[in-house]
Fold this protein.
Amino acid sequence: MKRSTLFIAVLAAMSLPSQAMELVDDGVNKVTLGGHLSVQLSNYDWYQGIDDSTELNANSPRVNLALTRDMGEGFTVEGKIESGFNMDEGGNSWTTRLGYLAVKHDSYGRLSAGKEWSTYYDVAWWTDVTIAFTSDQLGIYSNDTAGDDTGMGRADQVIQYRNNIALGEKGRLSAGVQWQGENGALDSRVGGSLIYQYDQARVGIAYVGGDVIEDYELYGATIIDLSKHQDTLESWQLSAAYGKWSKGLYVAAAYQQGTNTEAGIRFAGDSIGFEAIGSYGFKSNTTAFVSYRQLESDGDVDVSSNYGGDYADDGDGEWNESFVTVGVHQLLSANTMIYTEYNVSTGDDRNGDNQYALGFRLFL
């Protein structure tokens, strides 16, 4: 088995059940088109747990183009560009989600540069597999962004290296490291992940972090004030999973400790996040799931001034939110799906409740 197999499987699983459309394959060069379009009827705000009126939206449509070239001697060059766009109303349409170049080898691993899913996400995505009420308690989309500058989600201007080692009958070990240079208020940042997999079971640990070298501003507001907040923005995560989403039994859980990862979206300071999900994929191409997500502050709350939701302190001076979500996804064909998800707030400090989403998705 080639040593790059696990990483390829990870990338494929992130996009399931998407099946990219092959445009060119001449044995040396390959070009594929991917992405998805959705229409969704729902009653929740972008900040999960905040009620809104029922409306139609597009739920993050995107299109991507992937290119690979066989260079011989086991080397492959690959590139990918992915853009999100506005398909349900006027206004600005295109945003860059991904854009990178990479060189990979069966033995030497994979080196990439550009805008790409982080090594932190190599572990975090295990609980981020639903459609409407997705992972939002592990700091992935830190500081009210896609984890761009922080390197926790779709990392900006990042250099990454990944490789894995087969351990024979004892499983497989994979590792990834990444680096980002200084960017505004954030000093250079490093991250990494380590994953052990045996059969269908896997456990992983990930870290990303760096110093804050000046007051950090976002959307015109100061979200990390060095006169009163720590000068670090970092996160540790430990996750475990078993099975494959939509294929029989799948369970996953993740625990996170962060510093200032919630600034700009909830609060500045230390945070503790936890997520768990259990699902079963039936032979009828139906996947049913239940998930639990919780986020707490580790200390008193300093709510971000541009926080867009309702915060209702129960008197303890700390942040405590949690949600239970149930849902069903039904594949109608290899590239079409209908889905419904229902979300209930079970924490002390978020007011949202009885939220739902009903949608249709077309995979390219």
User: Anything to note?
Assistant: The two ends are 29 Å apart (CA to CA). The chain has one domain: 5-363. Residues 142 and 150 are 7 Å apart (CA to CA).
